[in-house]
Amino acid sequence: MTNVSLPVLSPGMDHYQLNGDLIIATGATLTFEPGTRFYVTAGLDVTVNGALVINNADWVRFHDQNGACGIVVNGTMSATGPVTRFEDVNSAYNNLGTYLTVNATGSFTASGCYFGVNTVTLAAGSAVSLTGNVFGASVTFSAGSAVDVTATEFGRACIVQWTTCQSCWPTPALQWCT
Amino acid sequence: MNATGSFTASGCYFGVNTVTFAAGSAVSLTGNVLGFGDVQRGERGQCDRQRVWAGVYCPVDYVPKLLANPSFNVVYLSGGH
């Protein structure tokens, strides 16, 4: 895959649905255009080795009945709201987990988005900038992750080591991991 | 459309249930409409007809080929690199 955009093809279109693991190769960019809806089937991952750009998409939904699924970022991911919601659509039955994981080499920038997946993990070494997002997810900041969480609201956050917190608002109910 | 196939369409309406473009197939689509597929479902001796949205199955790389073809419902992406 080189550079591909996923637009809303017509008013009659509902969504894109991922039916196989997707790897965004180094040097490639996948862009979700405004209004796009993207559904990830149970057991599948989107692995970002290149770049994933989510430009005010409508929603990204993860269905984890009988299989965990999510996004793994080794390259660059940016998400810009104000509409975009990352949602777990199977929260009751055989829920095997939905996740957004930013590994050590990854860069993650988000503003104006809602993250309702089960876990968001920001690994040590990752570069993270969060502004005006809402996290319903459990968020784990690992040691050394450079995090700016301006105006970001957390439902529950677990910090291994907090290195940078600038202008946190409202004051998140953060707790150290045990 | 299988990997060795070539498919060119313009100004057509496709009301089948699924349209599949395999990786490697040569596809050119302009100004087509993918609409409803009518299926007949029999259950316990009763039959009715239901309108089912058609779906397109293709690799991510093929999404640009779908531009300017309105009224798609769900585009199923087969993943890949």
Summarize the helices and strands and which ones pair or pack:
The complex is a heterodimer of chains A (178) and B (81).
Chain A: E1 3-6, E2 15-18, E3 22-24, E4 29-32, E5 37-40, E6 45-48, E7 51-55, E8 59-62, E9 69-73, E10 76-80, E11 85-88, E12 98-102, E13 107-111, E14 114-116, E15 119-122, E16 127-131, E17 134-141, E18 146-148, E19 153-159, E20 174-176
Parallel strand pairs in A: 1-4, 2-5, 3-6, 4-7, 5-8, 6-9, 7-10, 8-11, 9-12, 10-13, 11-14, 12-15, 13-16, 14-17, 15-17, 16-18, 17-19, 19-20
Chain B: E1 6-10, E2 13-14, E3 18-20, E4 26-30, E5 33-34, E6 36-43, E7 46-53, E8 55-58, E9 74-77
Parallel strand pairs in B: 1-4, 2-5, 3-8, 8-9
Antiparallel strand pairs in B: 6-7
Question: How much helical structure, as a percent, in the residues of chain B?
Answer: under 10%
Unreliable stretches of chain B (pLDDT < 50, length at least 5) are: 38-51
Unreliable spans of chain A: 159-178
Characterize the biggest β-sheet of chain A. 13 strands, parallel
Shape designation of chain B: globular
End-to-end Cα distance of chain A: 42 Å
H/I helix tally of chain A: 0
Q: Supply the helix-strand structural class of chain B.
A: mainly beta
The global form of chain A is: globular
What is the N-to-C order of secondary-structure elements of chain A (H for helix, E for strand)?
EEEEEEEEEEEEEEEEEEEE
Radius of gyration of chain B (CA) equals 14 Å
How many extended strands of chain B?
Answer: 9
Question: How many domains would you count in the coordinates of chain B?
Answer: 1
